[in-house]
Amino acid sequence: MSFVQVFMSASSFFSQLYVKSSEITPYLCGYEGEVELKAIRPQQSNAQVVQELYSQIEQRNPEAGSAYWLTRTWSLLCWQPTYLAFISVYGFQRVPTLTQLIQYKTDCFVTGYQFDELTVEQGELDQVIVKAGEQLRRLFDEYREDMANWTRIRPGFADHIFGDAIIACLLQCFYAQQVSREQVFEHARLWLNACRLPLSLTDTLLEKLPSEQLVQVRKSCCLIYKCDGRGLCANCPRLPENKELLAR
């Protein structure tokens, strides 16, 4: 099948996407019409909204430090587009125009979305993976370049978090039986290539012995342990058992 662009109404693909995304988590809620929330919009400066998000995170967790505030802010910008890409690809074998995604900011969080443009593309699975990855790359480059106007955000830092989110979503698809064990590494390479991310991130997918369970040990650390009362995540590279896995 050749790659084609399909113009669909919100009552078809997008209504299904809204239902599916909100089933996965109510925080991933699709909207139609006017929304009375502060928006992160495509192809324009979002410095004011994103700086406000950063400041709210700083005020809530002053003890955690600037590295955590930046990491949390960037992770929040990336989570919805990444989830929507994977839901669209593996749930519908289609890709909406992710570069036209509007996201909404609440207190210390990014939750809720809608699309400026209600178009969708379809094709073979490998084609839609590539298309989705390319669009995520363009969207996140736009976010990072906008943030770089008011804070230091290194491309390598941003890409490690981006890549870890890609692998995490792919692993979720594997456990949901949408991707076979044989496909996981092949699809990881497709996504990483399309997103222009290091293929070495496939090394973060590991078999946990003796069960041979497939797990992820992230490249990046979310730094949540710097917040009072919080510890390391199960897939954190700082955990001793995960360091052992990586050293095998």
TrEMBL record:
Residue stretches making up the Ferric siderophore reductase C-terminal domain: 218-238
Protein name, entry field: Siderophore ferric iron reductase
Organism in which the protein naturally occurs: Vibrio olivae
